[in-house]
Amino acid sequence: MENVEGTECNVCREGSFYLDPANPKGCTRCFCFGINNNCHSTHKRRAKFVDMMGWRLETADRADIPVSFNPGSSSVVADLQELPSTVHSASWVAPLSYLGDKVSSYGGYLTYQIKSFGLPGDMVLLEKKPDVQLTGQHMSIIHEEPNNPRPDRLYHVRVQVVEGNFRHASSSAPVSREELMMVLSRLEGVRLRGLYFTETQRLSLSGVGLEEASATGSGRRAHHVEMCACPPGYTGDSCQGCSPGYYRDSKGAYTGRCVPCNCNGHSNRCQDGSGICINCQHNTAGEHCERCKEGHYGNAIHGHCSVCPCPHSNSFATGCVVTGENVRCSCKPGYTGTQCERCAPGYFGNPQKLGGSCRPCSCNNNGQLGSCHPLTGDCIDQEPKDGSPGEECDDCDSCVMTLLNDLATMGDELHLVKSQLQGLSASTGTLEQMKHLETQTKDLRNQLLNYRSAISNHGLKMDGLEKELSNLNREFEALQEKVQINSRKAQTLHNNVDRTTQSTKELDTKIKNVIRNVHILLKQISGTDGEGNNVPSGDFSRELAEAERMMTELRSRNFGKHLREAEAEKRDAQLLLNRIRSWLENHQVENSALVKNIRDSLNEYEAKLSDLRTALQEATAQAKQATGLNRENEKTLESIKRQVKEMNSLQSDFTKYLSTADSSLLQTNTLLQLMGKSQEEYEKLAATLNEARRELSDKVRELSQSASKASLVVEAETHAQSLQKLAKQLEEIKRNASGDELVRCAVDAATAYENILNAIRAAEDAADKATSASESALQTVIKEDLPRKAKTLSSDSDKLLKEAKLTQKKLRQEISPALNNLQQTLKVMTVQKGLIDTNITAIRDDLRGIQRDDISDMISRAKSMVRNANDITDEVLDGLNPIETDVARIKDTYGSTQREDFNKALTDADNSVKKLTNKLPDILSKIESINQQLLPLGNISDNVDRIRELIQQARDAANKVAVPMRFNGKSGVEVRLPDDLDDLKGYTSLSLFLQRPESKENGGTENMFVMYLGNKDASRDYIGMAVVDGKLTCVYNLGEQESELQVDQSLTESETQEAVMDRVKFQRIYQFASLNYTKKATSSKPETPQFHDMENGNSNTLLNLDPENVVFYVGGYPSDFRLPARLRFPPYKGCIELDDLNENVLSLYNFKKTFNLNTTEVEPCRRRKEESDKNYFEGTGYARVPTQPNAPFPTFGQTIQTTVDRGLLFFAENQDRFISLNIEDGNLLVLYKLNSEPPKEKGVTHTVNNGKDHSIQIKIGKAQKLMWINVNSKKIRIEGEIFDFGTYYLGGIPISIRERFNISTPAFRGCMKNLKKTTGVVRLNDTVGVTKKCSEDWKLVRSASFSRDGQLSFTNLDLAFPNHFQASFGFQTFQPSGLLLSHQTEANNLQVTLEDGHIELNTRDGSSPIFKSPQTYMDGLLHYVSVINDDSGLRLLIDDQPLKNNHRLRHLSNSQQTLRLGGSHFEGCISNVFIQRLSERPAVLDLASKSTKRGVSLGGCSLNKPPFLMLLRGSTRFDKAHTFSINQPLQDTPAASPRSMEVWREAQSCRPPPRAQASHGALRFGDRPTSHLLFTIPQELLEPRSLFAVDVRTASSRGLVFYTGTKSSYMALYLSKGRLIFALGAEGKKLRLKSKEKCNDGKWHTVVFGQDGEKGHLVVDGLRAQEGSLPGNSTFGLRAPVYLGSPPSWKPKSLPPNSFVGCLRNFQLNLKPLNTIAASVAVSPCLSGSVEKGIYFSQEGGHIILANSVLLGPEFKLVFSIRPRSLTGILMHVGSQSGKHLCVYMEAGKVTASVDSEAGGILTSVTPKQSLCDGRWHSVTVTVKQHILHLELDTENSYTAGRLPFPPASTQEPLHIGGIPAHLKTLKLPVWKSFFGCLKNIQVNHIPVPVTEAMDVQGSVSLNGCPDH
After folding, report:
1. Residue 508's pLDDT is what?
2. Burial of 1538: CB neighbours in 10 Å, binned 0-12, 13-18, 19+
3. DSSP 8-class letter at 369
4. DSSP SS3 for 1766
């Protein structure tokens, strides 16, 4: 052994200690940090240090994971369920108590326990990583445990802290004892591995103990800890520390040596490494305490430092010099005197007083001396200073201040001299002394004068230099501009010369080619062609003469003149360039010195501006961050617009090229006509088949049914499928013929010129090429043999028609009941086809909005190819034109002999064309492949809708840009209009500002276009403005005629920099309009507004704008747009600012497009604006306000103005608690939740929606557990534990918070001001839907929502006389009946009502309506009604469609006229009401003034969709496209008899419930453990990639949702702990993907999942995506049946055994709905809201069968309760034989019980006094006793006596509930319809019927409960 000695090797050698049998070296070598090797084992004992309070859990990127400390178990616990699945590493980090000097832990143990919680089956062990990591002294060492922990088990770790258990983290090298001791001497970090498994839900850490040696320890002796004999200066067991007065020098071994501090005895502490002294004592300072600190004097090195007596013990000096008794102080600023005993000029106070000091004077006397009294500080009046009063004199130059200080010093010395002189006697010495002083004074005066003169001279020189520098700058800039202009001219000239030279060379090449071709022709003519291509003999003389003439003509063409001109231009350009260069060189030499001076000056200025630039950069960065999202949205929008423009340009290019081939496609057109005829024949055939199908359907209803001939139905289905296949083939043939070959041929023709140029050296014209292309196209079409196929199709169709007629005859004899299913299938397929088309269209629209770089590159390459082809074609045409005639003549002469060569050349050209055009189909196929890749993302429309919502928010922000836009007479913008165009129909209010520049700035502003709002077809409805003769003219047209008005005053002219603008406000209510014109509205003194009225006749009252074609042009218009004649003027020149449109803020910067305008370059106009603290909340958004979270007494205040009945004012939340201050029905209401109890509410009866100011104060006392809300003089007091919050909301809340707390109160609409919070005034910076001004029209209430029987009444409206009466309004409703408007006087009553959806006009004296509309208007859309009575009679206009007759209104007295809106069960909205009045100009009726209401909510319409910021999650388009997804299983839809149909038509239906109770198309699962739907996959849907989509709603945390597969491979979707998990298994390999968020919140979530080869995908709600791959090359193929829910057969044990409990809808495979349901088990309709006990029968129909459960005998009693939703339907039916059954049913609200026996039948009925549609339960009792049938409905009885010879009950009969099956409908029953509603508490003979044991449930029936009304 190394470290032992002695005969028995049992003695440690010198320099080692502790003989240990387990140590291979025997003894441990002393370390002592290299100081010495004399040590021994310590006598201290081990003690375990444990501190679990400060442990943290961090990920690999140092992100903290929240943890909690459990004092009971002394453990730290972390919840990892919210941790992303990509995180595979987490470590526990020790607190500071475990760090520092831990040398005594050497040889001890580090122990701890860790546990990973989760499902062991889901947890997979992660890769091996270090378990323990120690860090210190720039080293990191690690330890790895040999064993691995087990999931969900406690894992104990025990590590001895010795070098053999650790290695280096970076190199994995072993750790030496020296290195371990160094790390322990300054331990900086301890990390323990935390995460060992995937799918870990929680982690716990406990009992982390680190052993150390301690004198108080009670454990075993710490033998491994050394006790060293340390020399002076060292401390610690291993000499690891330095003694006081020493510091560690890093130059020594290991951690360094300890060196004495050099602090001159004034400190015993200094910094390690540098030796700088810390905390110098005895009034010393410096790195080594070598000097006295400020205000002290003495010798710090050899003595001590004392305080300076300046004066006395008050030290106001920075230093002093003491010589004996003489003291000379260096005073601090503000003090003067030899001992700083006085205040300096500009300061006051008494420094000699104990505790006294000098303070600056608070007087501003331009820096003059003695500005205040030196003791009291009172200001002393000074003579006024020369100069202007506006000069700023506060800041003085440093030189002047120095001079003033010198003068003050001189004054002090003069005072000293004066005091000396006063004490002297008149003597010779005194005189000499005075002469000496006089001489010094004169010298000082001369120096002062010289100093002033020098300063003056330097100032003059500086002024001159500044002027010279300014002149040089201007000259240099002018010179630079001239150089740039000349350089551009020279460059342009040079480019022109190059182009001319290039054109000349190209022309020369073409001429040479022509000459060479002519020579070749001459050789052929003369027979000297060596190749044998000779022209046949004949009359050569004529041809030779012609050729010579051509040659002569060619030679006579002289290009010398052009060449000389080009060379002359080139020489001139070269000379000019040389002159410019020489001129530049001369000036460069001359200005070199000037440039140097300028550069020095610029550098100086640049240095001065650096601070300002830094501040500007910070501001720019903040602005960029604030506007980043808007800029990105704008860039995306612009990119989309550019792509659309490029696509349009590309399309126009293709159209132009295709047009050149029209002449070659005439034969193909003939073929297309034949195809059109074939299509017509097919359509006729289809119509014939449809007619035959209808005849079949009619016959089926008349015939009895038989189930024995099912094969005929199968044959009919086969025929239908073959017919559909033939139709698809015909459509495919048509698509291929017109879409592929013809387009290719057209491209061949369009691009043939380029290939002819490459293939034919000789001159050929385009005629042969076009002929060849057309022949090729014809051959291609003939190959397809379309005529023959069309004829074959026609003959096949005839055969099918004959077969169908034959089948019809067979079906008339014996019809199968399944024919109804065939009809239903055909209908569903038709609906599916339409919805699939809708899906494809929607996805294509979405794809247009997605910017894909690869698509853009493809489009660019395609455009480049087309552009190159176009250029080459133009070159060929230009080159061939001069010789076209000659070539044509030669071809005519020798064409026949060269036919073979020409055909060969054309063949080569055609091949080249095909190679070129093959590129375009490749591009199209790539685009199609990209489409196919994107198609499976079913929720991409959700993402697009989210992006659209963000774009809408950006547009909302753009509307807030209230800045005038400058137009230059050529520019313009198209402004984006609001979505609600229907509101503009009846009412239009547009406000804008106008200015035109002064005449001297820009002439020609007398006639200008201003704006146009209307349809692109200007002959239809529009509103427009223009400046005519300098005055504003307004024109509008409602479809009949134009109305025009011109303002009397001229439009204001002003400067553009500070524009003074006129305000124009145009208001229209139906056909009446007014113009409010305020001149100089933006100046400080605007002129009085002028009002002008207009009218547009009585025939048309609405502004009908087509949403697809509406435009809003301002300032200018596109060149292709034709304005109306009265607006046809040049674009605007000046400034325009939009203000609002129908109370909505509108800005020119929210534009669709611009015309000749770059808004980033054109500087906007500036105008004066009044600042206001008012904020207008539009009712669409909110304001987010930060606040101090821990304030002891938070206070919030605001003043509101509003006219709405409901709105959210203030909202704060924290976790599950919240406070919401709302307006409900015009009063304040507080909704709050302060603990675990349900939310509570408190209110105060104080109207706040009257448009007046109302001050609201919210005060919170946390200590008192109180909150007070003061509204004017009213108070609301709330007691409870008030939570902390750092953010609160005003005027509304975001969608996420609204959904989390189920807040239904809409956003606030109105004005807020005086916003305050605890820390001061509130500035709204983080807002959405908030404008920083309140317009004058915001209080106007134009719409109201009416609940059932709601009514709004007006009095004292001063209505017009009846001969000129008009009442107009708009309405929306889904109700068929109700009162819309009532105008009542003493003598008459005019009413507009809705009756069964028809609009009727009635008067009191008329028995029948005056008018009744032929159409119905209960579709929920906005419709406008006008009642007009004038000289031409009475008219009723509905959406501008008139109804007329000769009726006239009777005289209406002016007294006691009342106007009412709503009533008589009307439910909906009324808006834009206009009543013609006597004393006022035409205006919309303000519904909030002079009105009384009941059941009416003012402001907004409840039927309209919420504003864009209130959109719910998910796409409405996505929902609409898939509402059919899961068909109701096994629906029973029997044909009805004429009797039952008549009853059904007469039956009254119940009103729909207040809220939707059943989710349409959704089904509920989980009623049984094996609840499921079984689907078979059609063959056409089986693809290598399978992507499923389904909507899920559940509150369950576990259960199976989807399963398909076999024992070897499977695919499943299930819930585990509330999260969705997608599982994929194949060949023993598994893949699991888990959703990030929990989905068991009771809301709908769209889930897309599936596989593509070995990859699996999981997408939840479109935004949270997961993706993974199966290990190896395993793949999954979809073959087995598909289950929704839990299948009854075998499934893997790792999946949940039971079905989840919840609802599913919209089930799809690869974006195609799956409705091939093969089986249904325990699946029912999905109900929303709360449910109660009972059975729910849905409107789709269904019933329950309980087999053999009822004994129907002579005495029988049946009791049950119903709550119907329809008043006709079967309730109960007992028995299955025609001679023995009992039936209870409803017929048009009447309840009937009937009994049939062998002797006949009897029945009894009860008609209730009140309708059964009241939402209450009604009891029904049927009793048969003593031959009497007794029916009891609630308390109403009915008896019927008769012979009922029932035999004794021998057999049990089936009980049918809610309906009867099809085979029983041969019974004579008047009602066959199934029951719609709820049914419960069924008893037969006093015994409850167990409905849950039903043998069979048919149709849509829920056994789990009824919707709670």
Report:
1. 84
2. exposed
3. S
4. strand
Mean pLDDT for 1646-1669 is 82
Contacts of 1070 (CB under 8 A, 6+ apart): 986, 987, 1101, 1102, 1366, 1368, 1426, 1474, 1482
Give the integer Cα–Cα distance in Å for 601 and 610: 14
* Closest of 1555, 1590, 631 to residue 1160, by C-alpha: 631
The DSSP secondary-structure symbol of 364 reads: -
Strand ranges inside 506-643, DSSP E = none
Are 1602 and 1700 within 8 A, CB to CB? no
Backbone angles phi, psi at 562, to 5 degrees: -65, -40
DSSP annotation of 596: H
pLDDT in tens, 1000-1046: 655 666 889 999 999 888 888 899 999 998 899 999 988 878 888 88
Concatenated DSSP letters for 1172-1236? ---EEEEEEEEEEEE--TT-SS-EEEEEEEE--S-EEEEEEEETTEEEEEEEETTEEEEEEE-SS
CA distance 168 to 319: 57
Chain length of the chain: 1909
Amino acid letter, 1880: K
Which residues make beta-bridge pairs with 1037?
A: 1022, 1042
Tell me if residue 366 falls in helix, strand or coil: coil
For residue range 343-377, list pLDDT tens digits in order. 988 888 888 887 788 988 888 655 455 578 888 88
Q: What is the pLDDT of residues 616-628, one digit of tens each?
A: 777 677 777 767 7
- The full DSSP string for 478-522 is HHHHHHHHHHHHHHHHHHHHHHHHHHHHHHHHHHHHHHHHHHHHH
The token pair that represents 845 in the structure block: 């629209």
How far from 39 is each of 17, 60, 177, 1540, 1763, CA to CA, in Å?
7, 42, 15, 112, 97
Element (H, E) at 1712: strand 1712-1713
Taking the alpha carbons at both ends of the chain, their separation in whole angstroms is 92
Secondary structure tally for the chain: helices H, strands E? 21, 103
Residues β-bridged to residue 1095: 1072
In this structure, are strands 1207-1214 and 187-193 parallel, antiparallel, or unpaired? unpaired
Instruction: Indicate the residue type of 1638.
Output: K
1469 residue type, one letter: C
pLDDT at 1318 over 50: yes
Q: Are 1553 and 1880 in contact (CB under 8 A)?
A: no
Res. 1602: pLDDT tops 60: yes
In this structure, what token pair is assigned to residue 1450? 């009777």
pLDDT at 1630 over 80: yes
**Closest listed residue to residue 909, CA positions, set 745, 747, 751:** 751
Q: What are the strands, taking DSSP E only, across 1272-1377?
A: 1274-1279, 1287-1290, 1309-1317, 1320-1321, 1326-1331, 1343-1355, 1365-1373
Instruction: Kindly report the pTM of this predicted structure.
Output: 0.40
CB 1029 within 8 A of CB 1068: no
- 1221 CB-near residues (< 8 Å, 6+ apart): 1208, 1209, 1210, 1211, 1228, 1229, 1230, 1256, 1258, 1269
3-state SS of 40-89 is EECCCEEEEEECCCCCEEEECCCCEECEEEECCCCEEEEECCCCCCCCCC
The answer to whether the CB of 63 falls within 8 A of the CB of 211 is no
Dist CA 1115 CA 907 (whole Å):
58
- Tell me how far apart the alpha carbons of residues 460 and 440 are, in angstroms, rounded to a whole number: 30
CB contact at 8 A, 1379 and 1393: yes
Q: Residue 288 corresponds to which tokens in the numbers above?
A: 């080594």
What does the pLDDT read at residue 973? 92
Q: What is the pLDDT of residue 406?
A: 67
Average pLDDT, the chain: 77
Please write the tens of the pLDDT for every residue from 1822-1835: 998 877 888 998 87
- E strand intervals along 1016-1095: 1022-1028, 1031-1037, 1042-1050, 1053-1054, 1062-1069, 1072-1078, 1090-1095
